[in-house]
Each structure stands twice: as structure tokens, then as C-alpha cells.
Amino acid sequence: MDRHPVVFLRPHLSHPYAWVGHIPFAYLLIDLLRPRQLVELGTDSGNSYLAFCQAVEHLGAPTRCTAIDCWQGDEHARFYGEHVYSTLRAYHDPRYSRFSTLLRSYFADAVGTFEDGSIDLLHIDGLHTYEAVREDFETWLPKLSDRAVVIFHDCNVQGRDFGVWKLIEELSARYRTFEFRHSNGLAVVEVGSQVPEAFRAFMDTALADPDAMRRYFEGIAATILDPATNLPVASGAQPRQVDCRVYYRTGEEGYDERRSLLLHLPEGSVRTMDFRFVLPDGVRPDFIRIDPTDLPGVFGLFRLALEFEDPQAPDGVGFVDIRKSGHLNAENLHPVGERWLRFASFHDDPWVEFSLAEAWQVVGDRPATALRVGVDYETVLLDPTLQHIAYEHGLALAQRAMAPQLPPPVDEERLFDNLSQLGERTQVVEQGVQDLGSTASHHAAELEAMRALVSGQLDLIRSQGDAVLENKSMLAHQQGMLEQQRLMLEQQRILLDQQHNMLTVLTRAGFIRRLKRLVGIESRTKEDQGRSR
């Protein structure tokens, strides 16, 4: 990794920050692959795509980049307005348009504009259901080159109908795959059979020691995004757009962005706003939830009303008593007006819920056309650094609230009585301890006598054991002597066998007969010599 300092570039950041933790690896991927064609499916505010473009420009890579998105959002990310696309384009076009294109299209409609086998790096980050992500992969698979690598975001998210993890399990049986687990997970799939050697070496290292590789990139990511708060800790993050969103539901439904309305504050200073949310035809919600923004701050609600066909008529508006709010996901503050609800949030998800039951009882069956919401933006923390400070402050307050409370004042007289009773019980316990001591001493003497008896028996057993060992040694010595005698007898037997064999050979050769004849002649000669004397 020392040969790739590109991982330490500083990025341009925009909300949301879910992908930001993988930006250092995005830098490295461009360095390892030097792709000829990069395509991203699902771009949102552009954190991942702008990081790819930044690395391409920094390295001088010969890469043509294309981001494909309808820039409307989806149920797994968020639904948003035109400002996300316009803000991204305003930053992107002056810097990267010579080699990069923002293609506003649905994925399936855009695939025909690319030649087969032309894409070296594909990033899939669209709708995250199993069916959707599998369709994206299979639709774009023919467009991948023999050098291709595909990355999938959110592979470490289960629930909410996310299915990327399931597809990665299937793909890992066909291709080499490595997964990062932080920032919702990022799966790296080696699809091509001729990937660059630098990337192949990375995969070898990552698969050999996955925990070490994950720790390395998690450490770099922590210098950009605080893993505890998911807020930027470095400069370069852009101030957030202030949006107000209203969710609506019936009694049996849950809140969902598909059943929500979104309005943006005009650019410039945050101010008091009187929003008019147009309700879809036939919508008659039982409950609404107002999210004044997704930023920390201090907010006030001063109007909540249903609007009908003739808002100028005396009964044209059905007001909701703001003071009868349901759950409040913030800190309730003292209101500045009689019919105000004022609250503060140290996190990025302030909201308040209201029931519309009383309002519908007043207006009857008349269909409402809009919802009027008056919001006072007293303070909104747009700067990411201030957002981080607010989060830490809120965490400290929560810990303080959970800390143990001080005990009530001590009743000294009652304490004295308790101590006296404790003293009496202590004396009883001490006497009991003494009695136990005497009993223990008696048992100790008995145990000592038993120990002496056992010790004597052990000494006898040891002496017998020594005698047995001595006898064993003598037997071993005698056995050695017998073995030597056996060897000597064996040698004599061999010698006799050899002599016997020799005599047998000589007999067969007639030597013994000639020897006997010779011995007989010699005997007669000696007899004759004796007679002659």
C-alpha cells in the first residue's frame, strides 16, 4: 500500500454520507485498474462518483467515466428533489466534464449506449432488493471486459428488503470476491479473467488476511468520517440543503418515504416558513409526522392545518392543536407563543407526530387538498463541524441523564441504630467463629495422627519398592551373564558345524582314506624299524 499514496487524497463530500467510508478504496481502485471505461449505476449526491473522478484526474488515468441515475431517489436510499442533481452538476461540470458524463436515465434504458466488452469498472448502487440488483448485474454483464471488476455497495445490510448480500453469496461461488464491512459494506468482485496484475496482487493479499486489509481501510476512513456519528471530521464537506418532509399514514401503516411530501427552503438564510404540502388525491391520513429537516438545531411549529377546496371560507381550514402532539424525537423547549411547539435536536433526525382524528371529526367527509405547516427555523447547524459538536454534546447529556443519582440525605439516628444492631450481630458471629476454631483444632489433631500413620505406611512401601528394584537389578545382571554364555555356546556350535562340514568334504574327496592308508604305512614302518634294532 506504500506505493499508492492516492488513498490519502481529501474528498469533496455531500450528504448523505453512507458511501464516504469507502472513498479511500475508490482512489486505490482507479490506481490498480487504470480502467478505460468506468460506469456507475446510482449516484445520488455524488460522493462515490466524484471520488472516482478525482482519482482519475489526480493519476492522469485514461478513463472515460459515466454516472447513470434518474436523480429522483428510491425507497432504499431516499426520495429527493431537483436540487441534488443541480448541485452535483454545478460542482462536476467545471472540473470533470472533459472525461466524465452525468447521464440522466434509467439503467435499463442506458445499457444500449455502451458496446459489449467495453467496461473495466462497474459500480452498482441502485435499488438494493435482490431482484433489482441481480437484474442490474445480469443486464450489464455483457458490457464487461475481460479486465472487469464490479463493486456493490450495501452488501453488509440485511432487513428492509435489502438483498445485495444474497447476490454476493451467489457470485462468490463463481468469482473471487472480497468484502469490506464498514459503511454498510462494499463487495469487490473480480469478474474478468485478465484483470491487471496490480489488482490481482491486491486480491491475493486481501483474501490471505482479510481482517488486516479491513482494518487498514477502516482506519483511513475514520480520518474522513467519524464512525460513531457518521459525520465528516475533515474539511471539504459541503453545507446541507434544508428540506422539510411530511410523512403520512393510516392507523395500520408505517411511515415510508413513498408516503411522504418534500419541500425545500429557498437558498440563503434559514427563516420562518409557511409550507403548503399538496396531498395526493384520495389521501386521508390518520397520522402525520413532520421532519423540519435532517439537521441538528432549534425549531418551532406554529401552524398545522388541513386545507380544502375553498380556503377563504370560514370553515375552509381544519386546524390541528399543535399542543396535542404525539411522540417527539427531540428535546421539548419552552414555547415562544401560546400555540407553539418548540424543540431542540442534537442529532440529525428531529421529528414530531400528530393525530388528525379530531380534525377529521370537525370537517367530516370533505376531502383535503393540502396540509399547511408553519415552521420556525430558529437555529439550524449547516456546517458539518458544528453538527459533530452538537452530536457529542447530545451524547454527553444522554450519558449524564443515565448516570446514577445521588442518594437521599442520611438519617443519622436510624444509621446509629443500624450500627448498634450490626455490633451485636458481630459479637454473635465472633463467638461462633471461636467455637468453630475449637472444633477445627480437635479435627486437626485427628488429621495429624492419620497423616503420621499414612506416612509410616508410605515409608514401608518405599523400602519394599527399593528391595524389588535391587532384586530386579540382580536378575538383570544374571540374565546378562546367561546371555553371554549362550553366545559362547552358540559360537562353539558354529565351529563344530564348520569342522563337521570340512570333514564331510574331505571324506568325499577320498582324503580320509588316503590319510588312513598313510597312517597305516607309517605305523608298519615304525614296527619294522623296532624289530631291526
TrEMBL record:
Keywords: Methyltransferase, Transferase. One of its GO terms (biological process) is DIM/DIP cell wall layer assembly. Transmembrane segments: none annotated. One of its GO terms (cellular component) is plasma membrane. SUPFAM superfamilies: S-adenosyl-L-methionine-dependent methyltransferases. InterPro entries: SAM-dependent_MTases_sf. It holds the Pfam family Methyltransf_24. The keyword Methyltransferase applies. The keyword Cell cycle does not apply. Coiled coil: none annotated. GO terms for molecular function: methyltransferase activity. PANTHER family: RHAMNOSYL O-METHYLTRANSFERASE. This is Class I SAM-dependent methyltransferase. The lineage of its organism: Bacteria, Pseudomonadati, Pseudomonadota, Gammaproteobacteria, Lysobacterales.
